[in-house]
């Protein structure tokens, strides 16, 4: 007769990986939404996004990539 576990133990490193994955997915979705919004504004002939806004979004993307490439302990 086999014993079946009714609860699953989640280790701290698994929680950390899950949190990093969720944050990464959110960042990618936000980036896609911003790209789509900018394309819509440009195609409709409205004002383009300011260079400062574009610089901030690229800086955030680079920071997100560098934080995601860290090795976990």
TrEMBL record:
Residues 54-73 have a biased composition (Low complexity). Residues 45-73 are annotated as: Disordered. This is Uncharacterized protein. It comes from Rhododendron griersonianum.
């Amino acid at each position: 007769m086999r014993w079946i576990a009714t609860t699953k133990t989640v280790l701290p490193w698994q929680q950390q990986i899950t949190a990093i994955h969720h944050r990464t997915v959110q960042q990618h979705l936000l980036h896609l939404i911003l790209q789509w919004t900018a394309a819509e504004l440009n195609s409709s002939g409205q004002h383009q996004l300011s260079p400062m806004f574009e610089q901030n979004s690229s800086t955030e993307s680079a920071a997100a990539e560098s934080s995601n490439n860290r090795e976990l302990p």
